[in-house]
Amino acid sequence: MLSDEAEIIRRCKQGDLSAFNELVKRYEKLVYNFAYRLTNNYDDANDIAQEALIRVFSAIKSFRGDASFTTWIYRITTNVFLDERKRARAHPHTSLDEHVELEESSIVRQIEDPAPQPLAQIEEKEVGNILNNAVSSLPEYQRTMVVLYHTEQKSYEEIAEIMNLPIGTVKSRLNRARLALKEILSPQRELFGN
Amino acid sequence: MKLEQAQELYSDYMEGALSPAMRLALEQHFERDAEAREDYEAFCQLIRAFAKIEVAEVEAPSGLRASVLERVSLEASVTHQKQSIGFADTVRGWFAGSALRRASSLGLAAAAIGAVAFAGFHGHGNSGPASTGGMVPAITAPSVTSTVLGVGMKSGDDGNQYHLFKVHLPQSISEAMVTAQVLSDPSQITDQDARNQQARPALKQPFDLTNDEELDIPVALLQAVPADSTITLLVQWQPTDNQPAGEQVVFTPATPDAAGAASPVGPDSSQGFYDALQYISSVYHVTVISDTSAAQDLTVNSWSATINPLDALNSVATSGGYHVRQIDGQTYQLYK
Questions:
Q1: Does A117 touch chain B (CB under 8 A)?
Q2: What ipTM score was computed for the predicted complex, to two decimals?
Q3: Which among A67, A112, A168, B40 has most CB atoms closer than 10 A?
Q4: How far is B62 from chain A (nearest CA, A)?
């Protein structure tokens, strides 16, 4: 077991596949979870995580260590997600797993868990689902901001590094994303309580 | 203050990041306009909802890592395959006399790319691979009855050096499963644990080789290496018909067209048998092929540091009861 991450990265830069295997082992969950929160879809998350990790291997020689490695991986995953959405817009197709577009909002096909659950849990889960779906309906850039800040718990500085934007721009775009979410969710405001 | 202007300030206000003047202006706006206050409250509700929601972690799919590694290997393989096209034809004549059918392993050896460990003993002030500017004629022309290994070399258009290890079975064996590993240290020849931990596979999986086939294993160098570096490849074969298994090792210069040491000198103290072979390969810039029957603790107490690599090898060989023969101008074999 390789313990030192810098050593693993150094070996990856030399094309060492066993070191890359170790690196993927360490980061696959993080990348997959982030991709899932961006896409709200397991299959899409798998595709994006796979592409992002391959891009990590291809680009690792250019990793200079200016940012933390985690930040660098977030940046790559974000770029893969944004590129993929751009490509999907250029070549639209339909899939059973995709969002079902409604007039005013969008929902995602879901399979209900039949097990009985306490009311509070149901409400929290429902609120969570509604929030997630609302986030999914945001434009990609706003969605990425919201996921990075509210789900991945990244600071403004980290988001600025990940998205290669000035901090002021990050703040103003996140504020706009929140305002957009507020509008989307205004019909269900009573669910969010105080 | 208009609603849109006020909304631009919501996040900063919530986080206490507004200047006192702006904060006062916004608060006065809220006091005057209940609807504006309500709008801000809805905004805060949303942010609080995010904080309340527990974010569930999901496990990565079980096949994700395997898929990534497979694609990475495949892409490296495709790159390598492209760079190797054409080279196979230039070495076809090596085994022409035995009418061998070629079984190229291109694509299988991708795992070895970048996995080469370089073992230069001494620096000679000559660093980086020398460019050959194209194909290099075959370095070795091994006899099929005495060695299973041959080594070729090419310099790709990209400036990288490519070594091609050519493997065939001994005449007495009709079919065997062949494995090959690039070693980072000669001790891995006799120390299986060290080999398992540190050697790099040169084939993704054992290769089923028959006696009328030849297996080519390309190994790429991905970085500039000192002129006296060597590549060490261990090839093992397990016959399918219960005959004894066998293995052979080859030490070959990473940059064979670079000049060797002007005045080779012997080791200062006793060296392991295979360490000495690697050293000689390194300083004389010759390819040394050997079987692997020497004991793990066999050391070489003295050897001749002459200008002639055959003399040097002979002085080492006697320590292990080996014989030495010269296969061609640049290749030597130790055998019992």
A1: no
A2: 0.78
A3: B40
A4: 10
